Amino acid sequence: MRRALLTIFSVMLASLTAYSVGITIATVDPVAVKPGMSYVLGKNALPSDRNEVRSVSLTLSGTTVSGATVVFYKRTPGTYSVRTTVSLLDAGGSTISLGTVCGGYVGTGLRTATITGFSPPVSVDEVYTVRVSIARVASC
Amino acid sequence: MMRYLLPLLLALLAASAAYAAALGLTSGVIDQLGRGEAPVSRYHVRVLSASITVNNNAFNNQITGGSVTVASTVPGTYAVTITVSTSSGTRTYTTTVGLSPTPTTITFTLSPALPYTAPGATVSVRAEPA
Predict the structure, then answer these.
(1) CATH classification of the domain holding A83
(2) 0.90 cut: is pTM over it?
């Protein structure tokens, strides 16, 4: 009797174990490491600076962020300097890289600021948030 | 009768426990499930640009829509959710698109339009397998 039970137990154990390791899953959805990104576009409300960001585009070298193009609407008339800053933030909201450019702008309308480098260089896959700010400054 | 039934029951219990342990060992890491015949891909979503369109150039203007350029490291069909928020509120736009490492531009409209208030607007893009 004991031998029979042992045999039954062994057969069951072997078959169930074989089944468990033989499971095949036909399709598995990809798992997100980084499912998305956010862009924060700045708008100023000072009487002397009421400009706003309309768009930003990152330039990549491979996967490294190497530049950015920012288009902003220069609402406050006159000729003055504007500093454009693009901050790249990680998942925790900490700034991991910065790019900035300063230039003089005339009149009103859409204006473009081109950032040609970020320090330190980071991969776009490390960036969760892109924060763009523009600020009128006394001089560059 | 009980003399035979009890050992059989114990054998069944032991087999079930062994089965559960084996299943747990093989599924502890999902891409090692079974014989690892269906490796799981891990994707990064890359949003390379974000742009908003506004109804006019006045200071108290409103965001009517925009566009984003999106790529995923793993090609496939994704449900993309674009959320635009300002201090005045939040609007969400959803669509289903095919994404790949080559960037795709998605244009979106917001209804109703969202006041573009200081200190600015946040455009969030999230993509999940559809």
Answers:
(1) 2.60.40.3230
(2) no
Give the count of domains, chain A.
Answer: 1
Asked whether residue B36 carries a pLDDT value surpassing 50, the answer given is no
Asked if the model's pLDDT at residue A40 lies above 70, the reply is: yes
Whether residue A36 lies within 8 A of chain B, CB to CB, comes out as: yes
Please tell me the distance from the alpha carbon of residue B65 to that of residue A61, in angstroms, as a whole number.
Answer: 29
Q: Please state the domain extents for chain B.
A: 2-32, 45-129
- Does A37 contact chain B (CB < 8 Å)? yes
Domain assignment present for residue A13? The answer is no
Q: What is the pLDDT of residues B22-33, one digit of tens each?
A: 555 555 444 444
Q: A42 - beta bridge partners?
A: B120
Nearest to B74 among A20, A30, A44 (CB): A30
For residue B116, the model assigns a pLDDT of 98
CATH 3.40.50 is the classification of domain B45-129: no
Q: How far is the alpha carbon of B112 from chain A, nearest alpha carbon, in Å?
A: 19
ipTM: 0.82
